[in-house]
Amino acid sequence: MYDEVGRGEHSVVYKGRKKGTIEFVAIHCVEKCKRLELRNIVRLTHEMDHPNVVRFHEWYETTNHIWMVVELCTGDSLDAVLTQDKNLPEETVRCFGVEVPHETVMLWKVDGREHVIGLVELYACVTALKEWKHIISGQRVLLFIDNYGAQDCLVKGSANINTWRKLLLTLEEIDDSLFANMWVTRVASSSNPADFPSRGSLKELGFLGSLDICSPVCPMTGVALVSIC
Question: Is the pTM higher than 0.85?
Fold first, then answer.
């Protein structure tokens, strides 16, 4: 194990080398309070082998930490690219911040469920894909999700709960017309640029350059959604 290459609130990342080889890897040393998150990452990535996905090697546990060994990526971070180039290469960054219709939220809660944040996350993805399908058709699409339930449903394309399943069926209709290569990954709220418009604020997105504020419709009913931005 060599130098530290990154650090987060609950983890440290080191550069390492696989014993007996010249292959360098990234070694994540993570506090055990993040066990559930790591388990989900391992479950989703341990069998994946794709040039655009960080390759998982192994993980193990010591007395105080969980260690995860993955492919070492030597390019700059998105933050470094934005600092250097000032904004993204797109002419316009499109965004929206809207309310989920009250009737829809009440329908989600009809079986006594109080917490619907996962459904809200999934609803936002379906709304965005429907709103921008003419732009992303045939393109590679990266979905940032900060809810594990929504991420699992999007990756699997299925759900046991009827309310989740209805949203996935709507997404399936949209996806059939897109022919897009879509990848779903989790990102913490603090690192997700979409978190700000979802809270009705756009000022934090100034670093992205010109913003085109869109007015999407409900992907299930076609009714215009109320903007909060």
Answer: no
